[in-house]
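Before relying on records like the one below, remember that each one covers exactly one chain. Contacts with other chains, cofactors or solvent are not represented anywhere in the record.
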Amino acid sequence: MKDTYNTLAQPSPEILYKEKNSKFFGYAFPIESEEDVKTHLEALRKQHHGAVHFCYAFQLGTDTVYFRANDDGEPGNSAGMPIYGQIQSFGVTNVLVVVVRFFGGVKLGVGGLISAYRTTAQMALAGADIIEKTINVHFVISFDYKNMNKVMRIIKEKNLEIVAQKMEESCQIEIATRKKNAEKVFDIFTALFEIDIQKV
């Protein structure tokens, strides 16, 4: 069972690609949601006032993948899809790649555009720091105070990450574990008396 995926450690440095007076600025960002996409695009629009096109592609998810490609006014499939193709060839997810174009007065034609957007996206991803992350499964464990030691001992033994905890009349701890260990962890807690575990 595959329980890792590749993504970016941090946003890539800005890169510039020139083709027949047109300038293409390339950026790659790690993202967690579509909200992040909007935030990055708004920031780039403020940064590059005179740019005509903000073409991009993003991919989110590990088991179920969701992606979008946007040509932002360039001819159909001449920008967004070539950018997305690079996200696929680098094998990364939870990633947004944006290419900002300043038109230089010379038309590049569809072939030229595809090549320029693809190259810029490739350069942006090549300049990024790609890391491997684990796909984690989250559980919430509910129990009474008297069982605290039992629960904490397992969390420590199994190296489980505590994501959140609520200690009121009863206790609730949200834990995260690698996907491949999830079933085992679930079974350990299920076997315990007076302890409830639910997948989040």
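The chain has two domains: 4-132, 135-199.
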